[in-house]
Amino acid sequence: MIGYVTLGTNDLARAAVFYDAITTELGVPRMMEYEGFIAWGQEGGGAGIGLTKPWDGNAASVGNGVMVALEAKDEAQVQRLYDIALAHGGTDEGAPGPRGEGFYAGYFRDPDGNKLNAFVMG
């Protein structure tokens, strides 16, 4: 249902380092890049993620209640994604662990404060 998600950034170069590390672990390359915008994804693949400086010229801000969930292949990858996020300027929002029956996730924010998680079901 979702084609892609775009998040705002105030420092595209800094944020690109964070997302390059996360998407490398997920095996997803950059697929599009313009001045002020980068997108990661695969044609014919699942939903991708874009990063942009806001087009209206105002500062990017975090959406309260907004979170992007990244599907991992297993619990070990959840841990790796969480560790990669923190090593590349992200901040902790909840260490990896079980969150109810059949759901395992770790929560973090990117350098601009956008909330993400890495999760696996089952």
Automatic annotation (TrEMBL):
The keyword Plastid does not apply. The keyword Methyltransferase does not apply. PANTHER family: BLL2941 PROTEIN, GLYOXALASE FAMILY PROTEIN (AFU_ORTHOLOGUE AFUA_5G14830). Keywords: Dioxygenase, Oxidoreductase. SUPFAM superfamilies: Glyoxalase/Bleomycin resistance protein/Dihydroxybiphenyl dioxygenase. Residues 1-121 form the VOC domain. It comes from Sphingopyxis flava. GO terms for molecular function: dioxygenase activity. This is Glyoxalase/Bleomycin resistance protein/Dioxygenase superfamily protein. It comes from the Bacteria. The lineage of its organism: Bacteria, Pseudomonadati, Pseudomonadota, Alphaproteobacteria, Sphingomonadales. It holds the Pfam family Glyoxalase.
